[in-house]
Amino acid sequence: MQTPTLIALALYFILMLGIGVYAWKRSTEDSEGYLLGGRNLPPAVAALSAGASDMSGWLLLGLPGALFLAGLVEAWIGIGLFAGAVANWFIVAPRLRQQTVEYGNALTIPEFLANRFPDNAIALRVISAIIIVIFFAVYSAAGLVGGGLLFESTFIAQPVMGFSPYMAGVLLTALVVLAYTMVGGFLAVSLTDFVQGCIMVVALVVMPLVVLFGDGWAATGDALRAVDPSFLSLFGGLTTIGFLSAIAWGLGYFGQPHIIVRFMAIREGGVRAARNIGLAWMLVALIGALGVGLAGRAHVEMNGLVLENSETIFILLANTLFHPFVTGFLLAALLAAIMSTISSQLLVSSSSLTEDFYRLFLRKEASEKEAVTVGRISTALVAIAAIIIASDPESGVLALVANAWAGFGAAFGPLIVLSLTWKRMTGAGAVAGLITGAIVVIAWISLGWNSQFLGGEGIYEIIPGFIAAWLAIWLVSKATYTHRPQVV
């Protein structure tokens, strides 16, 4: 590793830790400050924080890797995600910002659901908190896998204190994220997300342009068509099930706690501005990620390079095409993508453990200072679970993200949308949808039906999970609605 690259990365780490200290001094005295930044995030910060925590390492690793292997047909995942994000900003964001305040100033999604359906409050808080912690441990592990791959392929060549290069990378990534998340809470996570989002989008725009101008646009296209005549086709080899599975990624947005919690924290009146900024950022970032995968494949083919893991194409291009200092900046962008999501997920998990377990069952009269301390301890515990899951170096980033994304999307997606928009929904319906969505997703994965279904192509687990949860909510709510107001 060359000195300029190390300097660039060191500056990045110092900046992240500095933001953590700044946030610690500004907003960690009470639970609302530690968990939601006082509900006063500027629109730009909220928008890029939602985007950066959403996209994670899969944007620079998993998605380019999929494009590298299969071609433009994999872009349907990005198209589905963008459509889902648009719907999420228009349907969920304004209503969730308003209703979480109206229903008892809820600080977490489980608390909001409990306040919205008081007759089933305990069941909703406990079940949703369990689902959040389980799936976020898996989701955070996906980010740590990305960190391990990055350090293994770029920074660390020899074992460190008995740990393999991969595992050393996992541990270092986790430690840095824990440092600023535990210290600065939600404000630190949001501000670092904002900075990381800016770094990510610049890197995703610059890298494919450098490759294209260096290798030539026409030559790049010829190289990709030489791999497969349909490599640049959106419909090359696309099946109906494959199309539905890719587009269905967009359904997951409605149920991602680490994304929609940003809506709760936007300052009053700022949702519209945040929506415009967030969607513009996402569109540019997704196009850039597609460019990295396609241009990277052409560059590898034209120059006779060897890439053992397609999900490291971003790392390969950063190391081979740029000045060492710029390489450091680009690798910092990858770390930014990884760490922004992990920090958000750890914080949401810790908030559920604190507000929906500790304060609900163990210490109902816990002081604000005590709650913040428990939140920090909970953050560390979830991180340890994620480290254990990520210890397998063969774990695929995109596969782990897909499983966790489907779990949240099916369990919480129909529940959130209907609780915000359907007045006849009942607490019993909410519990039924939450349990049904989670169980169907877990069962679908366990049976391997996401890989192969009835002897044919696998169906992405979010599709049956989302449909089953929606039906469960609708049917049980119809059966249990008593024409009695559900809220006070």
UniProtKB/TrEMBL annotation:
Record's bilayer topology term: Multi-pass membrane protein
Functional summary from the UniProt entry: Catalyzes the sodium-dependent uptake of extracellular L-proline.
Catalytic activity, reaction form: L-proline(in) + Na(+)(in) = L-proline(out) + Na(+)(out)
InterPro entries membership: Na/Glc_symporter_sf, Na/Pro_symporter, Na/solute_symporter, Na/solute_symporter_CS, Sodium:Solute_Symporter
Matching Pfam families: SSF
UniProt-annotated location(s): Cell inner membrane; Cell membrane
GO molecular function, one term: L-proline transmembrane transporter activity
Protein name according to UniProt: Sodium/proline symporter
Family named by the database record: Belongs to the sodium:solute symporter (SSF) (TC 2.A.21) family.
Transmembrane segments: 6-24, 67-91, 122-146, 166-191, 198-219, 231-255, 276-300, 312-338, 371-391, 397-420, 427-447, 459-476
Highest taxon listed in the record's lineage: Bacteria
Keyword annotations: Amino-acid transport, Cell inner membrane, Cell membrane, Ion transport, Membrane, Sodium, Sodium transport, Symport, Transmembrane, Transmembrane helix, Transport
GO cellular component: plasma membrane
UniProt GO BP: proline transport
